[in-house]
Amino acid sequence: MIETTKPINAYCTGSMDHGYESGTSDNNSRRNSFALKDFVRGRRFTMLSRPARPGNMDSLRKASCQVSPYHNDEEDNDDIETPAPMSRRRMSVPESGFQKAEYAILRPTRDMGSSYEIFTAFDRHTDPYRHYMQSLTCYDLQPTHGSVLLFYGNLKMRQAVTALSNNSHQAAVVWNADVPGDIGILTLTDCLTTLMMAHRGQRGVAEMTLNDYFKATSAKPLIRTTAETSVWDAARVLCLNRVRSLPVFDTDGSEGTAMYLISMRRILHKTVLKLADPSDSFAPYVRQTTLIQKKVGTWNDIGTLTSEATCKDAIEFFLEKKLSCVPIVNKSGQLQGIISKQDIIRELSRHHNNYLQVLTAPVINIIATKPRPVVGKPEMTVLEAIASLVSTERQALIIVDAQKKPVAVVSYCDIMEYIQNCESSHKNSVIANP
């Protein structure tokens, strides 16, 4: 048994369906302060039943605490005097460190009960988001229901583009059956690149196999990670390579199986938003700092397109600037809408007889069929920006001023890079507010 007499702040991550949108009132708060001994006293620590992790990972971190509603102190004396081995507890820190902890992160167990497991604990000098992401693995963020689109290397580009546009997938893992372990990833950018290659006269690109396409475009080797990689490290890989998603494999090496594609959107949604707290003192560099204060994102030379632009103009913008969306403005420079790569890929499905027809389609016709875009304001906090981004399918948030003119673009990578470089800011805020 682990006991401590001092109060400890518990942040319950809740079910995966809850998020920042639930609000931050006292009634909806997932934060509670309690004496930790009242939580763990008399509980029986047992192994958690859940789908097996790859390899020997089942024994690493999957245990939970359960409690009977008919708790009796006298009957449970044996459990109190004989503590369960640390290997059977859901602990990310030693007992000695846990005794000194001021915060704990709890999450529901995966059994049929309503009990919580102690996931990790830390003191107020520790950056909560950094600590939480370093404690989580990519396996922990695996969706309950999901799929990975897998293409063989001998599939033709025309078929691959059709499959992506018709199934709303962002990317597909490509496996070369002729060379075991030789894999790549096909993205929306590749689809748009293929379209422009055909427009410029390379009509044979539609019948080119994926293997030949990767050779012709000198595609980089697949960037991948494993289930046991920490979420923090996976986010660093995404930021460093400026990629949208990262294939997660069950094991390292060429024989591994793709489990899912982890994205920056999922990381921020399942970590930062899950630890949303009504107190602004919790990680103030995220909850109090505004976008304009730290210039999070791009605040100079914001590229835009006019309402007279075509999809061809938008595609050229995406490929040249390496961006995923672009604001559409009127003659006065005011925002009219936002068009993304995904919007153009969807438009392709309407021109299945001749994909090149999409190049002449006006962008104003595409944005006219979409709801009013979600935009941000310069005074928006970093946390509010994350919540706004997660509520959309886009990879970046357009920031507008009082005249509704775009002044900045903030992407998931911009926010994550800011968080990963703010450990000193958190420590300074703790020192300033002891």
From TrEMBL:
> What's a Gene Ontology MF term here?
AMP binding
Q: Which SUPFAM superfamilies match?
A: CBS-domain pair (SSF54631)
CDD domains for the chain: CBS_pair_SF (cd02205)
Q: Which UniProt keywords apply?
A: CBS domain, Repeat
Q: Where is the CBS domain?
A: 296-356, 368-428
Q: Where is this region: Disordered?
A: 67-93
Give Gene Ontology CC terms.
cytoplasm; nucleotide-activated protein kinase complex; nucleus
Subunit description: AMPK is a heterotrimer of an alpha catalytic subunit (PRKAA1 or PRKAA2), a beta (PRKAB1 or PRKAB2) and a gamma non-catalytic subunits (PRKAG1, PRKAG2 or PRKAG3). Interacts with FNIP1 and FNIP2.
For this chain, the family text in UniProt reads: Belongs to the 5'-AMP-activated protein kinase gamma subunit family.
The protein here is known as CBS domain-containing protein
Source organism per UniProt? Caenorhabditis auriculariae
Traced from the root, the source organism's taxonomic lineage reads: Eukaryota, Metazoa, Ecdysozoa, Nematoda, Chromadorea
